[in-house]
Design goal:
Blueprint: H1 10-15, H2 37-48, E1 61-65, H3 67-71, E2 81-92, E3 95-100, E4 103-104, E5 109-110
Antiparallel strand pairs: 1-2, 2-3, 3-4, 3-5
Length: 112
């Protein structure tokens, strides 16, 4: 909306240029193909699929997530991930035994 006295919009007065709205710029965004009634159900189903968990092999390097950092305010800036460990043994259902410098951790770690 233009001002009566200046004949300019508030944006033009502040930034010395006209505003460009996002709808005026043609940028391909997700989804790139239009969703029609035929592919609506398929698109909805694909977007709701859970991510497939990553499966590690023996000898892979992994980082251990420190959950205590998320729950305590005084450790807010501490690293959220602990040093690289090696997978020593696969226990099944996403659980792994980890090794650090030839010492095997007593507790198993979950891959999620």
């Amino acid at each position: 909306m233009k001002q009566d006295t200046t004949q300019a919009t508030l944006f033009e007065l502040i930034y010395s240029r006209t505003a460009t709205l996002p709808v005026e710029i043609e940028v391909n965004t997700y989804p790139t193909e239009p969703i029609t009634e035929e592919n609506f159900q398929e698109t909805l189903h694909n977007n709701q699929l859970p991510n497939k968990p990553v499966e590690f092999k023996i000898g892979d390097k992994v980082l251990l997530h420190c959950t205590k950092v998320e729950k305590q305010w005084n450790e807010k800036f501490d690293p959220k991930w602990d040093r690289p460990f090696h997978i020593e043994e696969i226990l099944g259902n996403g659980a792994y035994k980890l090794r650090l410098d030839n010492k095997i951790l007593t507790k198993a770690a979950h891959g999620d």
